[in-house]
Amino acid sequence: MSETTTRTAAALVLEDGRVFRGEAFGATGATFGEVVFCTAMTGYQETLTDPSYHRQIVVATAPQIGNTGWNDEDDESARVWVSGYVVRDPARIPSNWRATRSLDDELVAQGVVGISGVDTRSLTRHLRERGAMRAGVFSGDALVTPEAMVARVLESPQMLGAELASEVSTKQTYVVPADGERRFRVAALDLGIKSNTPRMLAARGIETHVLPATSSLDDLLAVEADGVFLSNGPGDPATTDHAVALTRGVLERRIPLFGICFGNQILGRALGLGTYKLRYGHRGINIPVIDVATRAVAITAQNHGFALEGEPGKDFDSPFGRATVSHYCPNDGCVEGVRALEVPAFSVQYHPEAAAGPHDAANLFDQFVTLMEGK
Amino acid sequence: MPKRDDIKHVLVIGSGPIVIGQACEFDYSGTQACRVLREEGLRVSLVNSNPATIMTDPEFADATYIEPITPDFVEKVIAAERPDAILATLGGQTALNTAVALHERGVLQKYGVELIGADIDAIQRGEDRQKFKDIVADIGGETPRSRVCHSMDEIRETVAELGLPVVIRPSFTMGGLGSGMAYTHEQLERLASTGLAESPVTEVLIEESVLGWKEYELELMRDKRDNVVVICSIENIDPMGVHTGDSVTVAPAMTLTDREYQHMRDVGIDVLRAVGVDTGGCNIQFAIHPQTGRMVVIEMNPRVSRSSALASKATGFPIAKIAAKLAIGYTLDEIRNDITGETPASFEPTLDYVVVKVPRFAFEKFPGADPTLTTTMKSVGEAMSIGRNFVEALGKALRSMETKAGGFWTTADPAVVTLESTLEALRFGHDGRLYTLERALRMGATVQQAHDASGIDPWFIDQIASLVQLRGEIENAPVLDEPLLRRAKRSGLSDRQVAALRPELAGEDGVRSLRHRLGVRPVYKTVDTCAAEFAAKTPYHYSAYELDPEAETEITPQRERPKVLILGSGPNRIGQGIEFDYSCVHAAMALRAAGYETVMVNCNPETVSTDYDTSDRLYFEPLTFEDVLEVVHAEQTSGTVAGVIVQLGGQTPLGLARRLAEVGVPIVGTPPEAIHLAEDRGAFGEVLTGAGLPAPKYGTATSFVGAKRIADEIGYPVLVRPSYVLGGRGMEIVYDEATLAGYIERATEVSPEHPVLVDRFLDDAIEIDVDALCDGTEVYLGGVMEHIEEAGIHSGDSSCALPPITLGRTDLEAVRRSTEAIAFGIGVRGLLNVQYALKDDVLYVLEANPRASRTVPFVSKATAAPLAKAAARIMLGATIADLRGEGLLPATGDGAELPAGAPVAVKEAVLPFHRFRTPEGQGVDSLLGPEMKSTGEVMGIDASFGKAFAKSQTASYGSLPTSGRVFVSVANRDKRAMVFPVKRLADLGFEVLATSGTAEVLRRNGIPCTVVRKHFEGDDNIVDLIRDGGVEMVINTPYGNHGPRVDGYEIRTAAVSRDIPCVTTIQGAAAAVHGIEALIRDDIGVQPLQALQEALRADWAARS
């Protein structure tokens, strides 16, 4: 949109002291978060509105961003959640028949501070070697000396140990009706749920009751659901004692349970597995996952900085009987799914609801239906 | 699921000669396949008639058959080799069609051979348009509304329903041959009838027009466990209506949201599964309505394609290599991604850069051809570039073209154009459409106006508008400071472009000095399939400019081995094709083996040279002075550059030699001054005079009067051409003064700066082509080739035989003495090509080129001596004696002294005439002359000339006839020479047809013949007869190039459109007779190159 050539300087400052210079993009000011890179080439609107990116500064490795503008249909939640956005070449105009405004306009409107013109590849290589870390984006008056900016970054909170689900969760329960006749009712614990998840459930005749992250087991049971769903969400899974306790309650009652992403880590913890922080995480929509049982490969959308401990294909004992590591990522052997063998519960580390990303894993929702049918 | 153990021996079918729509991308894919299959321990047999391919090098297969890719010959290969399986999905449409034909003839069943990759049903489901449409409908997708038709009546009925315009697509043709868009009923009649004729099954699809819709392609791969991945999305900047091969394309897709992209991916995967390509790659095209988003599937190729080569280079994911592994049973997750070395191939590449491909056209070679771009592919090559954003990649791609314009603003704007006329021009696809778009924007067109006119997505238009804006900033800035220069470079502008805007900087060199002074230099990034998520093991680099002066460059230091840079040949074009890539690849192989670190620089995505496996390092960069110089700098910074090789990539790198040497770049091999000696007429004349070698008389003229005086002095016919010549461009043979006047009139650029050369033309001379090596003390004659057509036909277009068929020992001695004198006289270190004309026992020197020639691969294969490898070694200091000692060259003798039992190899050119039409829809003339027009070549090799020639004709045009009718019409000067070959044809049982004049001569010589009417003599004339299929072969020699030749033109175009042999020289007719005799005897067999070369080496050894 900007026909003018006024350029406002900006800087991305990492906690290790590295500074990447660029130009202000979106809102001007200062913002802080954990800087992570996402390798998706499409779907920035979905990415930016994904609550799992709360308190993170996202680096787009794809250089041309904003080409399709912003529309009223592709948001994955009610707002942009990223704390900052780092791109190389933002579009000057949006071009898409569904676009109603530009990405730049939307970021300004939502007060999201971004930076463009950055050598995002150098930055990505740096993060790959050094790991995700705290950072700040500074522009306008906030752009000061490197030392001062690094000092402010070091004051910002760490991701390790951060409990963030409650910050992104709905405050009140709401219901998403089934498309057509209702076959099942599901209680979904909102730890940062994306809009497409209830849509995928609804398409399978499921009425979804989306509950706040702070809901008690009684709140959950009061829904009288056929199944329980644990959503994705931001933060360190080690801080989720409440959700883990809730999950154990569900498992004890043998209510079918399906978790994704953060939900996978919670089910894993409920089954007794530990979690750890990955160096730079999995964020992209091209990530292979192998189903141990069938050896089939799914190309999946992922967004996780933490992972479950475990060995692919290995069964393990849990408080709820035998369980198995059902899926893994062949890139690095990371655990991508667990399944309880004696209670009806399974989860995956990736996003079967995609948005953004490929639909290869959509059938996991069908598996959830099967699990509920077998009740 | 590991490798299948029931397949031990695979026959790979190649794609044959380079033609429009099927180029060296299939050498790239086939070479990868052969390499992979052998690494897996399988026996590999190969059939491919194209000698200029790496895949037909004897070390790439166990048995290499350089034989015609026809069902008959492939059956002979199957009978000889008895393979377990055939892999036909890597050899383009040629291989696929041959596989279908073998199936239909029961050959596969007879020999128990399995088709791997895609089976017959899948091929037919993918290629049969109606079946394909049904499949798309079954999976819930949409295709344009349409109907398959088999007759003109059906076609008219369908158009009545769909309304005009409609698209006409013949079934089972490649590169969109015969297809087109009809806006009027007249166009419909013409295109549809051609389409029916072009289709081997007389079938065309008449389709709703999706003209102007957004166009996309997906490259997918599937393994036998049904895992599917999308390797790359490609967006065409030119919307629907222009063949994707002729479109400027971008990867990844730029203007799709995730929702739309994933819908496309879902449909693509469903189509692939439903068609049932078991394993391997496929390509699917889509169109999206720009206002509604309605998406339709256009077509799929159930095989590796040109786009998959592009996708492989664009992503670093080697589709053909993986396809070959999948075909023998591996699954994607079992195959390692070479680039990361750790992660598996079961993933989807993600790009942190933008790739742009621009097609290269050759309309100037085909006067009269309609340059409007349509759904029939017309481009002859392409260049790809990689940048960190779209405009950077676009700028690099445009300057990779090696056309007059090297990006916006590098040539003068056309005079007298209005905004209206510029916008009007944008409505139709044409070569340089983006230049037109830029001018329209600069003249004040809005993005919307430009979009309305062109259908190009506004995002792309705005990107070009950003360059127009930047141009204004550069022009108006008081000084060109570092930040602005950096932005200019980051937007892909070359020094030359910046220089055009800032005249005070004293040209490109001035801009470069300023840029270096300001520290504005490119960094080099890496193509790694994963946007830097994992470390890359392969040094596959491209340049980029970042705003940050401290930006990171990814070139790793390497100081142990000396580096050699090999400059490739850029986009394929007529006159500079795959043969040069072959030589570059050979240099890389030879020098790597000799302990050098090899560094390839090239921008042609179709080639083997740009495979990251070929050299130690690959720079995917334009071959301009600026870009090459920066690569040299980067490599000098990372280690020691022993030298840069410029003589293997054709004219492109050779043209850079002088400037590179001037700035201190070490050029190895023949020094630039020596190159100049050969290229400068005067200097070369002195070399010849000094050695006592005759050359045809010549003179230089700047006007008609001057040209006439020279012609009168040296005598007609004369060969006239512009003084600066590439590939025989603008050359003509002129037989009289009137034609000479016409030539000068047409050659508008004649001036003191641009004189015309007038050479004596040696009528009826034998032309001889020699490829030789020289190390400074010894000359090795690689091969002496005798042209079958007389001098005057460009050597690239004429067929030739090796060893020479009619040259005597004294002739060969003269050739040797002359070649030695020239090689030493010029100071050649490496390869030299000399063209001679032998007339009345005098050997005239026509020209000498101190570089690899087009015939190097052909000669290397025919004589079992790898000339390009030897040349590369010589350039780095080895002597011919060393190489003889190593066994790279024969211990004694050379290619001019082949053993008596050596096989005869015939090279034949393949011409693209049937691709082109005049704007009125007529065919273009197929006449050959001094200007090269062929796109590729084939080789026929056998024990005798007749058999070898027959094979070469079968491989290039389909078989020579063995019975039927031959039409003969020759120029007066050829009437005497025609008698013997035509008599022989009559004796062999052919019915001879002739026009009255020719018939009279034939009858007087006792040859029975039937008189037919000339074209202008009314109905039932010869042209009608040819068009109706009543003639099996045409012998038609023309008189002059622009004389009274209308009848000849009609006859030749009719022959081309019927795909029957059309011989335009008497020498060619004699060769055809030899070939026909061999065919009639029916004793033509097949033999692998390995056996032929082994026998040759044994003979050689026995003699020494």
UniProtKB/TrEMBL annotation, chain A:
<feature type="binding site">
    <location>
        <position position="305"/>
    </location>
    <ligand>
        <name>L-glutamine</name>
    </ligand>
</feature>
<dbReference type="InterPro" id="IPR050472">
    <property type="entry name" value="Anth_synth/Amidotransfase"/>
</dbReference>
<keyword id="KW-0547">Nucleotide-binding</keyword>
<dbReference type="GO" id="GO:0006207">
    <property type="term" value="P:'de novo' pyrimidine nucleobase biosynthetic process"/>
</dbReference>
<keyword id="KW-0067">ATP-binding</keyword>
<dbReference type="GO" id="GO:0006541">
    <property type="term" value="P:glutamine metabolic process"/>
</dbReference>
<dbReference type="InterPro" id="IPR029062">
    <property type="entry name" value="Class_I_gatase-like"/>
</dbReference>
<comment type="pathway">
    <text>Amino-acid biosynthesis; L-arginine biosynthesis; carbamoyl phosphate from bicarbonate: step 1/1.</text>
</comment>
<feature type="binding site">
    <location>
        <position position="306"/>
    </location>
    <ligand>
        <name>L-glutamine</name>
    </ligand>
</feature>
<feature type="binding site">
    <location>
        <position position="303"/>
    </location>
    <ligand>
        <name>L-glutamine</name>
    </ligand>
</feature>
<keyword id="KW-0436">Ligase</keyword>
<dbReference type="GO" id="GO:0004088">
    <property type="term" value="F:carbamoyl-phosphate synthase (glutamine-hydrolyzing) activity"/>
</dbReference>
<feature type="binding site">
    <location>
        <position position="235"/>
    </location>
    <ligand>
        <name>L-glutamine</name>
    </ligand>
</feature>
<keyword id="KW-0315">Glutamine amidotransferase</keyword>
<feature type="region of interest" description="CPSase">
    <location>
        <begin position="1"/>
        <end position="184"/>
    </location>
</feature>
<dbReference type="InterPro" id="IPR017926">
    <property type="entry name" value="GATASE"/>
</dbReference>
<dbReference type="GO" id="GO:0005524">
    <property type="term" value="F:ATP binding"/>
</dbReference>
<keyword id="KW-0055">Arginine biosynthesis</keyword>
<protein>
    <recommendedName>
        <fullName>Carbamoyl phosphate synthase small chain</fullName>
        <ecNumber>6.3.5.5</ecNumber>
    </recommendedName>
</protein>
<feature type="active site" description="Nucleophile">
    <location>
        <position position="261"/>
    </location>
</feature>
<dbReference type="InterPro" id="IPR036480">
    <property type="entry name" value="CarbP_synth_ssu_N_sf"/>
</dbReference>
<keyword id="KW-0665">Pyrimidine biosynthesis</keyword>
UniProtKB/TrEMBL annotation, chain B:
<feature type="binding site">
    <location>
        <position position="169"/>
    </location>
    <ligand>
        <name>ATP 1</name>
    </ligand>
</feature>
<feature type="binding site">
    <location>
        <position position="285"/>
    </location>
    <ligand>
        <name>Mn(2+) 1</name>
    </ligand>
</feature>
<dbReference type="InterPro" id="IPR036897">
    <property type="entry name" value="CarbamoylP_synth_lsu_oligo_sf"/>
</dbReference>
<comment type="function">
    <text>Large subunit of the glutamine-dependent carbamoyl phosphate synthetase (CPSase). CPSase catalyzes the formation of carbamoyl phosphate from the ammonia moiety of glutamine, carbonate, and phosphate donated by ATP, constituting the first step of 2 biosynthetic pathways, one leading to arginine and/or urea and the other to pyrimidine nucleotides.</text>
</comment>
<keyword id="KW-0479">Metal-binding</keyword>
<feature type="binding site">
    <location>
        <position position="299"/>
    </location>
    <ligand>
        <name>Mg(2+) 1</name>
    </ligand>
</feature>
<feature type="binding site">
    <location>
        <position position="129"/>
    </location>
    <ligand>
        <name>ATP 1</name>
    </ligand>
</feature>
<feature type="domain" description="MGS-like">
    <location>
        <begin position="958"/>
        <end position="1099"/>
    </location>
</feature>
<keyword id="KW-0436">Ligase</keyword>
<keyword id="KW-0028">Amino-acid biosynthesis</keyword>
<feature type="binding site">
    <location>
        <position position="299"/>
    </location>
    <ligand>
        <name>Mn(2+) 2</name>
    </ligand>
</feature>
<dbReference type="Pfam" id="PF02787">
    <property type="entry name" value="CPSase_L_D3"/>
</dbReference>
<feature type="binding site">
    <location>
        <position position="299"/>
    </location>
    <ligand>
        <name>ATP 1</name>
    </ligand>
</feature>
<feature type="binding site">
    <location>
        <position position="208"/>
    </location>
    <ligand>
        <name>ATP 1</name>
    </ligand>
</feature>
<feature type="binding site">
    <location>
        <position position="835"/>
    </location>
    <ligand>
        <name>Mg(2+) 3</name>
    </ligand>
</feature>
<feature type="binding site">
    <location>
        <position position="285"/>
    </location>
    <ligand>
        <name>ATP 1</name>
    </ligand>
</feature>
<feature type="domain" description="ATP-grasp">
    <location>
        <begin position="685"/>
        <end position="876"/>
    </location>
</feature>
<dbReference type="GO" id="GO:0004088">
    <property type="term" value="F:carbamoyl-phosphate synthase (glutamine-hydrolyzing) activity"/>
</dbReference>
<dbReference type="GO" id="GO:0046872">
    <property type="term" value="F:metal ion binding"/>
</dbReference>
<protein>
    <recommendedName>
        <fullName>Carbamoyl phosphate synthase large chain</fullName>
        <ecNumber>6.3.4.16</ecNumber>
        <ecNumber>6.3.5.5</ecNumber>
    </recommendedName>
</protein>
<dbReference type="InterPro" id="IPR058047">
    <property type="entry name" value="CPSase_preATP-grasp"/>
</dbReference>
<feature type="binding site">
    <location>
        <position position="847"/>
    </location>
    <ligand>
        <name>Mn(2+) 4</name>
    </ligand>
</feature>
